[in-house]
Amino acid sequence: MEWESALLHGRFDATDSTGATLPAIYQNAAFEQRSAEDLERIFTNRKPGFAYSRSGNPTVAAFEQRMAAAEGGAAAVACASGMAAIAMALLNILQCGDEMISAAGLFGGTQDLFEDLRAFGIRTRFVPRLTPEAVEGLLSEKTKLVFGELISNPALELIDLAAVARVTRRQGIPLIIDSTTATPALVRPLALGADIVIHSATKYISGQGNAIGGVIVDGGNFPWDTDRFPPLKKYEHAGALVYTTRLRQDLWRNFGACMAPQNAYLSVLGLETLTLRVQRQCASALALARALAQNPQIARVDYPGLEGGDFYDLTQRQLKNGMGGAILTLRTGSKERAYRLLNHLRLAHIATNVGDVRTLVICPAHTIYAFSTQEQRRGAGAFPDLIRVSVGLEDAEDLIADFSAAAAAMGAD
Ligand code: PLP
């Protein structure tokens, strides 16, 4: 089955017993059982079923099954947000004294989370770019995982997954990839060597800026050595699914990181149109990037699909049809000029999100990274004059006209 068909008809029942083509929204906390014995069986995993929506809910399960199919994974666990998904995915295997290696080019919230983890004795060793050589240079006995954003936000740097995966596999440590900005419409990281894939479902998956959510997809074929990853030891009986079993039975449940049923429904709905939206948004992003690259008022345009850019070749090789995602960045020369451009836009909204159907713009350095250190901002590529543009579904010509007019007004002010 091709990817688009698997999204609608994958390894799950597309209809329920009523014939409904979409999952119902089970907006309840508890699920009544016929007998005390049945409730015990569900609690002890001897009978499939639901007991309590923090540990399992049919609407959320429908989203999880579709995400596992979308990414070609063995299992998925939905979370309250993208941040919850990242925190749970890492803490599922990390302990006090452990280290992880990560690219410095990270979403600001993830940078802040890694700072928070220091209080629990977990240290992140940052590399400017996640290359095999950079990872090899920092490996130690303490290293338990390698983390990176497939297309980093807002640095827009790409990871060569196959190359990095060769190193992580050889070392017996998992490669955990935040694929939020790439989406399974452009690349399925598990097929290229990643072991765990994370999404903020808030972005392209729900796709309309209407639901906060996250998801962790387990490829189900990482050879976990439970002596090296002691938190998994208790769940060895789960075999290939040891990672997801520990997550679901233990950490995710106990942190209360579950996704809300309403948001799971909205994410299922979004997932069904993901490919169409992403293809259109990528095409418009490329058109806008090309137009603005010619604009004398704009100092620099970065977009992975733009000819001549640092990541152009990798984009062509790794992302479907060479599409570079739907985010581009503009350098304007100063914060003042950047703000003037933003304030002259008529179509694009000044707002902090990506992956919406509407085009959204922000200056990350003064918002998302406002309380970050200089080093963190530099690592993330959050320059003071940089504007991040998340391209929506508006007509590309309208967007080009809007940005061109705002750039002209910025120069004239
Ligand atoms: N990962 C990336 C790449 C993001 O851009 C974001 C949010 O902007 C997140 C994770 C966090 O997602 P959420 O806002 O759903 O917690």
Give the helices and strands as they follow along the chain: HHHEHEHEHEHEEEHHHEHEHEEHEH
Might you state the CATH topology name of the largest domain? Answer: Aspartate Aminotransferase, domain 2
Total helical segments: 14
What radius of gyration results from the CA coordinates?
22 Å
Structural class, judged by helices and strands?
A: alpha/beta
What small molecules does the structure contain? pyridoxal-5'-phosphate
The chain-level mean pLDDT equals: 96
- What is the assembly state of the chains in this entry? single chain
Q: Low-confidence parts, pLDDT < 50 over ≥5 residues? A: none
Number of domains: 2
What is the CATH class designation of the largest domain? Answer: Alpha Beta
CATH superfamily caption of the largest domain = Type I PLP-dependent aspartate aminotransferase-like (Major domain)
Percentage beta strand: 5-15%
Number of strands: 12
3D shape: globular
Could you estimate the helical fraction of the residues in percent? 25-40%
Give a short account of the largest sheet. Answer: 7 strands, mixed
Q: Name the CATH architecture of the largest domain.
A: 3-Layer(aba) Sandwich
Strands in their spatial order, largest beta sheet: 1-7-6-5-4-2-3
Distance between the termini: 55 Å
Describe the structure.
38% of the residues lie in helices and 13% in strands. By secondary structure, it is α/β, with parallel strands linked by helices. It has two domains: 3-271, 3-Layer(aba) Sandwich (Aspartate Aminotransferase, domain 2), CATH 3.40.640; 276-412, Aspartate Aminotransferase, domain 1. It has a seven-stranded mixed sheet with strand order 1-7-6-5-4-2-3, sandwiched between helices. A five-stranded mixed sheet has the order 8-9-12-11-10. Helix 7 links the parallel strand 4 and strand 5 (175-178). Bound molecules: pyridoxal-5'-phosphate. Pyridoxal-5'-phosphate binds next to helix 4 and helix 5.
